[in-house]
Give the backbone structure.
Amino acid sequence: MGRITKNKKLALEKLEEGKVYSLEEAAALVKEVTFTKFDASVDIDVRLGVDPRKANQMVRGVVSLPHGTGKEVRVLALVTPDKEAEAKEAGADYAGLDDFIEKIKGGWVDFDVVITMPPVMGKVGPLGRVLGPRGLMPNPKSGTVTMDIGKAIAEVKQGKIDFKVDKFGIVHTSIGKVSFDAGKIADNAKEFMATINKLKPTAAKGTYVKSIYLSSTMSPGIQVEPKSFVD
């Protein structure tokens, strides 16, 4: 058995084994059990009672967190020349088309989100081999293929995230930073779970939300009572 570090021991001492915490308790605790020297992300893991192998039980969506993620998101806008100014004004870190497509084909992926427009998807589509495995391929369902380029970029910069259930039936995403106060962490978590509940597939049977955990980048997981997300 590996040796438990001093910080991990301190973190575990703050948690009561087997206890399921309220959202407010967990939002405060996740700050107390984090000892990183950097501003760690706060993550939420939700185990759902769905079978992701079945198309009618896939859970995927987007949510705009009220307090953002605290992360600086680098946006690449693959747009026609007449849309470049709009993209840059909205906060895109990179805006253009052919030159960036060639850079991506060469392996460049120094960005977090790609936003593009329907008329150029013929050029963007072949990039799926590079962008797809990294989860960077733009998709109309996530709002990253649109003619309203400025709005899409502004929403991403302000804290809009997209998520989907993995093959194990778990949705995992970041909802803030440990530097956020507990109230903001709780607000973001509530907004995320409200979206998850709206997306419940009609084909899903039994308990939909099986468990919820909050954690930071290097902290233990804190189990949260699902009912505490409802005011």
